[in-house]
Design the sequence.
């Protein structure tokens, strides 16, 4: 009987739980109400703090028609029954609220849908989106889920039932999206149109499988017992839910009624399917493993589209559930489901067969006569130091481990690696107890391996239990004796658990001076045994079990919540505020050991979860002190008293010993933000050494890689523990100071081609500056601050750059004074920031002050002074002082042209500025020549994907619009925006100007609605980037108002007619630049003649430069060092906007 009991326990814990859902239109609400009632009762039975979801209980859910739709909601979208009831109610009210037609056929006899299929599609999409998925997501997206889902539909051409699955099955693939699967199973003929998936057409599966219980049975056999097809021994609970018993009605004599009603009832009647199924499973029904719930009275007159009778459905279902006959059956079902501990793996039939063989063996042994064998019976060893943990929750990982251990295709040794405190010991502890239940004749031996001495002493104790202690008392030979004992087949099956195998050298070097073998070589080997060991080092796990390792990851929220609930005395703390509980678990990074420690602290001090979060989220030292609290835990070794603060101390020491470079990287990462750390910032220049250091840290699960291995995430609690370690070694101040130096020297190159790297480095630089500014070298602080501000400029985040530059200016003023070139460079950069924000007055005043300082110092012809003159010219142009802007811009351009050459970036910058000045002066011809020349130079030198190239393209686009070349202007603007988004991102301020201009071009082409949409998008982005008070934002909002309100009706009519709009542009330009009429049709300008010599001079210099260097017109030319921009302080990495 004991063997039978153990077999039953295995089926109770791991047996299959199947759910079948009938179709029935609006009556599907009854199905959901029954299931919701069961889930509530089951959650109470299990002691769960939240209502369990069906996807957390059932291994397979199958449904037909609206039952299929419910199956998708519960299984594929993983909705709770409560959410599903609400979504389903809203859906049927929307879909069945209005008929398209009352008669389901047209005058030709063709079947026509009575309800709007588009409404159904939109309603299904809304449900999918609200559940957090996308309608275009595949039903089978390749993700592994514990709950499998399929729905039944009927192929229109063959009338065969087809299953659309959320998982893969060989040779039966129908690639359908979630939305397509939901529509295909719900497309009832006469109610909705058929659904096309690929080249096939489908209607709902009610014809032949309205009660899909046989489909579920067949599908489960395909998955879990493909060869034997013997599903019954594997099933723990098979739950079938109906949508109400139909009324008994005679066959109609009328042909139309026979075809539309009687034939449908005959084809979809589920009762015959139910009778056949219950007859086959009668024995399992008596064992209370098969359950069918179906409202018997009250729903007979509810048609599948009678959405007005929802209250009747609720009432009838409530009466059914609370009937005395059903209460007992529901209770039996809940007790059955409550024993389910984990999802059933596909090889479950192997485990059941092994149990049956074990039971048969024990039965034969009991039946063997007493004198039939003289061999003494060997009792299995049980050497496990801890009691079973009743609060263990990570059952899915345990099932994965068991599958790897006991599968015939895997090696007899399995390694479990993971971060310290992630729950590896508790995992193998539960494994030990489950293996004892599954295989009662199996010896289970537990060896702690934290150090050699502990390992040796435990081996001696095990040898005593085996009665194999050497006669001469030589304990050094014990491991070899245990190895020989377990390797002999006659000593039976065994499981050897080696816990905390963290020391790599201990397992790879000679274990003792008297033995040449390593510890790994002394492990027993036998086809009758399995070895599982836990370690923090992936490197060691791969060494001992290279093809069979399991990573213990952090828990998900559901399991972490259950673990916290099990550890807390006051369970109400969790249910009172679930959001607070979630925040606590997130701050503890879902680490089991940290959760248990937090629960112990809360229990002992009787504080709330919110108060614990307040302490934990305060100062770093307070968090460290909190995580250093000692606590008792029956499932841990007595030596582990300060788990979180000290659990990784051994790992730190091992890393420092194995690779000092990795220890340096860990120390550096403790001084920056914990997430998204660029690997290029790490304090090691050699790429090979860097990758090895990262690999070692990854092997201890301290860091994780993302972004193709170019970013690292440091575990938050590991960061706190590292800080504590550095402080205990008096190294924290040293590393805080050194981190500033590392960042200042290794900051990624600030160019558009490494934008992702320097963007990711910004928060780390700010973190270091905030924590280490007082102790670091001032010059390095200034350099790092200037670099970050420069990155903000490149990103268009000028409002964030300004306070950083104001602080930098103040610090430089107190250190080196206001006449130093470094101070003047920062002052000039701050003035440019003000200009980009729109503070033109402040910017002009600051630029003039900087230029005056250079003049007084006799450095007016220096590169920095010319840069300031160029920026002042730009600011004057934006402010509207075009005459002075032209004078200063020409001066700066000529200096760059002759001092740095025509292909220097500073020359291109000044040329683009002069293009805009000419454009603002209505000198369209000069502006066009300048723009074309600068565009050609930028493309040939810097390539098409460069900010200067996009700026030149943008200027040419604006000129094309001024010339009324609308198509050309549109093409150029689209090209500018597309390239600009790739280079600088969509919110860069200058790109927003181009977006505004594209709206104008679209408007002038007569596409009013498209233009309004573009301008609305521009207004939103400008408000986010520039602010609502910026002049450009106000101008865009004003223009949008003119385009969309009736107050500006005359202007709106003008803008709707392109020729009138063109005339308005000409008149506006002539109002700004008036001309006078002389001698008949001739016109003369009222302004002074503009000098075009600068444009001609540029063309001559460029031509001469090409001839001197032998440059073809369309060939890229590598910029010579003498042509590069002079870099002013604060120093930024070389290559500003240059190709790496």
Sequence:
């Amino acid at each position: 009987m004991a063997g039978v009991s153990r077999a039953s326990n295995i089926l109770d814990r791991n047996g299959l739980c199947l759910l079948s859902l009938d179709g029935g239109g609006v009556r599907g609400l009854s199905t959901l109400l029954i299931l919701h009632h069961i889930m509530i009762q089951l959650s109470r039975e299990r002691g769960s703090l939240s209502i369990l979801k069906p996807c957390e209980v059932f291994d397979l859910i199958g449904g037909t028609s609206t039952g299929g739709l419910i199956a998708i909601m519960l299984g594929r979208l993983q909705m709770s029954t409560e959410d599903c009831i609400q979504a389903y109610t809203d859906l049927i009210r929307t879909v069945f609220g209005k008929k398209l037609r009352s008669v389901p056929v047209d005058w030709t006899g063709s079947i026509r849908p009575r309800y709007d299929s588009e409404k159904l599609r939109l309603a299904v999409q809304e449900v999918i989106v609200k559940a957090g998925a996308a309608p275009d997501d595949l039903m089978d997206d390749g993700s592994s889920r514990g709950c499998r889902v399929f729905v039944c539909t009927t192929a229109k051409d063959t009338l065969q039932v087809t299953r659309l699955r959320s998982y893969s099955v060989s040779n039966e693939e129908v690639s359908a999206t979630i939305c397509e699967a939901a529509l295909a199973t719900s497309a009832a003929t006469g109610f909705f149109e058929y659904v096309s998936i690929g080249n096939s057409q489908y209607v709902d599966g009610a014809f032949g499988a309205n009660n899909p219980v046989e489909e579920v049975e067949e599908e489960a056999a395909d998955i879990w017992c493909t060869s034997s097809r013997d599903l019954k021994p594997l099933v723990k609970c098979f739950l079938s839910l109906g949508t109400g018993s139909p009324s008994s009605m005679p066959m109609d004599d009328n042909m139309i009624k026979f075809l539309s009603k009687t034939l449908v009832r005959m084809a979809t009647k589920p009762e015959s399917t139910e009778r056949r199924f219950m007859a086959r499973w009668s024995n399992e029904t008596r064992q209370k493993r098969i359950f069918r719930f179906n409202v018997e009275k009250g729903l007979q007159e509810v048609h599948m589209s009678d959405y007005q009778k929802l209250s009747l459905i609720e009432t009838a279902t409530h009466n059914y559930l609370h009937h005395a006959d059903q209460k007992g059956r529901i209770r039996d079902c809940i007790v059955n489901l409550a024993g389910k501990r984990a999802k059933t793996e596909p090889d479950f039939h192997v485990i059941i067969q092994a149990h049956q063989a074990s039971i048969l063996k024990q039965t034969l042994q009991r039946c063997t006569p007493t004198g039939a064998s003289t061999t003494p019976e060997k009792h299995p060893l049980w050497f496990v130091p801890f009691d079973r943990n009743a609060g263990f929750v990570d059952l899915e990982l345990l099932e994965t481990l068991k599958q790897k251990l006991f599968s015939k295709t895997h090696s007899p040794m399995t390694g479990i690696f993971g971060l310290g405190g992630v729950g590896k010991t508790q995992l193998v502890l539960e494994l030990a107890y489950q293996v004892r239940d599954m295989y009662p004749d199996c010896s289970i031996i537990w060896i702690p391996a934290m150090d050699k001495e502990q390992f040796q002493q435990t081996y001696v104790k095990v040898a005593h239990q085996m009665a194999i202690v050497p006669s001469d008392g030589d304990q050094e030979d014990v491991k070899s004796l245990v190895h020989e004992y377990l390797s002999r087949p006659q000593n039976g099956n065994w499981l050897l658990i080696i816990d905390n195998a963290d020391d790599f050298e201990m397992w790879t070097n000679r274990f003792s001076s008297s033995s040449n073998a390593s510890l790994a070589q002394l492990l027993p080997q036998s086809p009758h045994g399995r070895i599982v060991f836990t370690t923090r080092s992936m490197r060691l796990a791969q060494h001992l079990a290279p093809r069979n390792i399991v990573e213990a990851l952090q828990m998900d929220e559901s399991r972490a919540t259950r673990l916290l609930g099990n550890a807390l005395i006051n369970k109400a703390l969790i249910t009172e505020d679930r959001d607070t509980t979630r925040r606590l678990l997130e701050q503890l990074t879902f680490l089991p050991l940290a959760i248990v420690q937090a629960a112990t602290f809360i229990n002992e001090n009787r504080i709330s979860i919110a108060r614990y979060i307040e302490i934990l989220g305060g100062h770093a030292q307070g968090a460290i002190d909190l995580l250093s609290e000692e606590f008792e835990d029956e499932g841990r070794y007595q030596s582990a008293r300060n788990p979180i603060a000290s659990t990784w101390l051994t790992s730190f020491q091992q890393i420092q010993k194995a690779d000092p470079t990795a220890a340096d990287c860990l120390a550096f990462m403790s001084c920056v933000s914990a997430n998204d750390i660029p690997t290029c910032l790490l304090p090691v220049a050699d790429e090979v050494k860097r990758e090895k250091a990262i690999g070692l840290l990854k092997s201890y699960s301290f860091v994780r890689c993302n972004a193709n291995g170019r970013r690292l995430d440091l575990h938050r609690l590991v960061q706190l523990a590292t800080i504590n370690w550095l402080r205990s070694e008096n190294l924290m101040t040293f590393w805080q100071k050194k981190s500033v130096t590392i960042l200042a020297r290794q900051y990624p190159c600030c160019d558009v081609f490494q934008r992702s790297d320097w963007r990711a480095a910004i928060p780390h630089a700010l973190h270091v500056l905030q924590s280490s500014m007082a102790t670091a070298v001032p010059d390095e602080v200034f350099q790092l601050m200037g670099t970050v501000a420069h990155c903000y400029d490149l990103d268009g985040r000028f409002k964030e750059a300004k306070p950083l530059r104001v602080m930098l200016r103040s610090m430089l003023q107190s250190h080196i004074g206001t006449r130093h070139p470094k101070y003047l460079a920062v002052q000039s950069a701050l003035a440019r920031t003000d200009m980009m924000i729109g503070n033109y007055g402040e910017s002009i005043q600051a630029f003039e002050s900087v230029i005056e300082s250079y003049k007084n110092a006799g450095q007016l012809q220096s590169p920095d002074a010319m840069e300031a003159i160029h920026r002042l010219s730009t600011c004057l142009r934006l402010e509207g002082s075009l005459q002075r802007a032209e004078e200063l811009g020409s001066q700066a351009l000529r200096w760059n042209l002759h001092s740095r050459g025509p292909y220097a970036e500073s020359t291109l910058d000044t040329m683009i500025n002069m293009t805009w000045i000419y454009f603002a002066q209505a000198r369209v011809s000069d502006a066009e020549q300048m723009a074309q020349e600068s565009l050609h130079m930028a493309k040939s030198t810097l390539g098409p994907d460069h900010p200067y190239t996009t700026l030149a393209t943008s200027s040419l686009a604006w000129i094309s619009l001024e010339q009324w070349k609308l198509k050309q202007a549109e093409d150029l603007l689209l090209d500018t925006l597309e390239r600009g988004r790739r280079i600088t991102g969509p919110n860069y301020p200058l790109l927003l100007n181009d977006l505004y201009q594209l709206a104008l071009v679209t408007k002038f082409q007569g596409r009013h609605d498209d233009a309004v949409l573009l301008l609305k998008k521009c207004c939103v982005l400008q408000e986010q980037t520039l602010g609502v008070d910026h002049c450009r934002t106000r101008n865009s909002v004003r223009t949008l108002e003119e385009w969309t309100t009736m107050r500006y009706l005359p202007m709106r009519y003008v803008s709707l007619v392109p020729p009138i709009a063109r005339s308005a542009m000409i008149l506006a330009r002539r109002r700004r630049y008036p001309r006078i009429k002389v001698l008949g049709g001739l016109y003369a300008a009222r302004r002074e003649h503009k000098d075009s010599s600068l444009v001609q001079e540029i063309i001559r210099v460029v031509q001469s430069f090409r001839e001197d260097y032998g440059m073809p017109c369309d060939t890229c030319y590598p910029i010579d060092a003498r042509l590069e921009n002079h870099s002013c302080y604060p120093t930024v990495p070389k290559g500003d906007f240059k190709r790496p």
Observations:
- DSSP finds 49 helices and 19 strands in the chain.
